[in-house]
Amino acid sequence: MAISSSSKLLVLHFLFALYLCQSPARADTTAFIHSRAAYYPNSDQQGTSDGACGYKTFGATLNGGDVSAASNLYRNGVGCGACYQVRCTGNSLCSPNGVTIVITDQGASGNTDFILSQHAFSKMGLTADAGASLLSLGVVDIEYRRISCSWPNKNITFKIDEASNFPGYLAFLIEYQQGAKDITAVQICETVNLTCKLLNRSYGTVWTANPPPSGPLLIKMLVSGDEDGDETWLVPINTIPENWKAGDSYDSGVQLN
């Protein structure tokens, strides 16, 4: 039996509505907050390689260099790695989409919430010329909202800090954290007897164990909840190997939504 054109139209409307319900882009419905933003005056146009989050050179080039220092949003390091949509306002030079940035440092200037890399600051412009004109202003009015970070084909990764000294002192960073939730606490666990202990946040996203347990190590992360506030422990599939090395990175095998 032939399907009428009106029936086809109803099916198309249903499929489109279903797509909208499933689209991850619709998860970012947080209201925009008004503030101000400045930028780093460095010549390479990227972020700083010695930021307060502890990312070092990785923090300067993360997200294609679209990174930022934050003041209140730093939240004693909890805010490190969080993603925000930032767009300038009240100026014909401004793009309606703005730029997506990652927090990699702490800082404030002129009552700002963000100190963007030059690369990120200029991307708030409609065009390259508009971005250059924005840079000449130095500080602009903005609005921002937190959005989900997306790191395709990446799991949460533990980067062993160069300051670590096997076997007596372990410091590591948490990198490539997706979603819009926070990691508020970390436990380190022995894999033989499964005893765990809470770690200290040294600074930023750097966690330390002095001394760490021996053997392969399991790192459990306490993840903030949604509006209900419930927190859950995220347990990786993979462990940090027994003979870990400073400077090495280890894939956790898990990721946040």
UniProtKB/TrEMBL annotation:
Could you tell me which residue ranges the Expansin-like CBD domain spans?
Answer: 168-252
Organism's domain of life? Eukaryota
Q: Where in the cell is it found?
A: Secreted
Query: In which broad location class does this protein mainly occur, judging by the first location in its UniProt entry?
Result: secreted
Q: What is a single cellular component term in the Gene Ontology annotation?
A: extracellular region
Keywords per UniProt: Secreted, Signal
Indicate the segments forming the Expansin-like EG45 domain, all copies. Answer: 50-154
Note the InterPro entries from the entry: Expan_Lol_pI, Expansin/allergen_DPBB_dom, Expansin_CBD, Expansin_CBD_sf, RlpA-like_DPBB, RlpA-like_sf
User: Where would one find the signal peptide in this protein?
Assistant: 1-27
Q: Which PROSITE patterns match?
A: EXPANSIN_CBD, EXPANSIN_EG45
Family designation: Belongs to the expansin family.
This protein is called what?
LOW QUALITY PROTEIN: expansin-like B1
Output the lineage of the source organism: Eukaryota, Viridiplantae, Streptophyta, Embryophyta, Tracheophyta
Gene name? LOC120259275
